[in-house]
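Example record

One chain of 130 residues, shown exactly as stored in the release files.
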Amino acid sequence: MAQAWLLYFGDVVAIFLFAAVGRGSHQLAAGADALLVTFNTAAPFIIGWLLVAPWLGAFRPQAVANYKAAIRTVAISILPSLVVGALVRALFEGHFSPWAFYVVTALFLALFLMIWRLVYTWFSASMHRS
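Predicted structure tokens for this chain:
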């Protein structure tokens, strides 16, 4: 049985880790001093995900019932949530980023969310087998 609070928490952590890795790949500030800056980078995409993904069923038990469902749920939810995240980010920044930023963000954000949800699905299935 999916525990929605754990999915929400894990999704937020996955998005935050995505932002931290992205910032690190650009040699931007890292470490404890950069936590707030990294959160500010992640915040628009966390907001977008948390506003859109629930409406698309991302936190229902069926969303992580098996590996295929976990991947499908992220695939269905990523683009609409990214659009909302891009709008929120543009409000924060005062402008939109180049389109390539959003393409890379969509691909890697989906990857981070899929990995987390596959891990969740695996652990959940393991617990039911025990």
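Notes: Residues 4-129 form one domain.
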